[in-house]
Amino acid sequence: MLFPAPRASYPTKDDVANYLEAYAARFELPVRTGIRVDGLSREGPRYVLAAGEQRFDAANVVVASGAYQAQRVPAFAARLDPSILQLDSSEYQDPSQLREGGVLVVGAGNSGAEITHEVSRTHPTWLSGRDTGHIPIRTGTGWDRLLTPPFWFFASHVLTTRTPIGRKVRPKALTIAAPLERVRPKELAAAGIERVPRTAGVRDGVPTLEDGRVMEVSNVIWCTGFQPDFGWIDLPVFGESGEPMHERGVVQSEPGLYFVGRFFQFAFTSSLIGGVGRDAEHIAQHLASRQRPIAGLHERKET
Fold first, then answer.
1. For the chain, how many structural domains are there in total?
2. Which terminal residue of the chain has fewer beta carbons within 10 Å of its beta carbon, N or C?
């Protein structure tokens, strides 16, 4: 089912949500919403999923919970004085949430830069973290439309786990921050925002920087990124790094278990809307090829 928009357009989040709803309706998919799975284990040949007091068992499970689930906030954040308001980027909505006084935004990636730019209109603001660089062209411009297709092809078909260059790039890609896309360094400077070194700790309840500087602020917004959260999966499928062990999303040690949507799962674009489809198709074909004497999802009736 093709997306109902021109190929070179930039759909909004609502456009994407509407497409997903229409997709589920067209194919009459029995989607259940409002259920949070908080446990996955195995009993015999079937998987058991816990969702609060509900229990489901299934022959196959696809973990499509996204590339980033849990905010990565440093442990020393707990030592900040209670008078300092702390928010992470997923909690931030607008400057009205903040207390009077200065704001330290920790993390200089896209979220940090954009939040800093907005907050600086109403509060003295400092942006803490290393410069991640920026994309030299603006989204939606002629240069963007010209250069994005070849870059997308390179990221989708060359930067993969099957090519030497892809395997070399992958470990670095998993740890570095993405370059800025919308708010540029010169716009941050024009807004009077001071760039400061990394936030390294807490002294007497106040955040301190890598250079020893003490930041007397009333607010700290953590834009320090996200990390996977697989604590709900009680299966021996994770390596020493905490990443699931799989072959292009297929877990060989646990037949019927799959992952999709992980960052650089197969290609650099695996966690993006435009790139996840190829991985999903691979897993769907693998699912269809399995013998299914025990197929299906069943809700358990506990007695």
1. 2
2. C
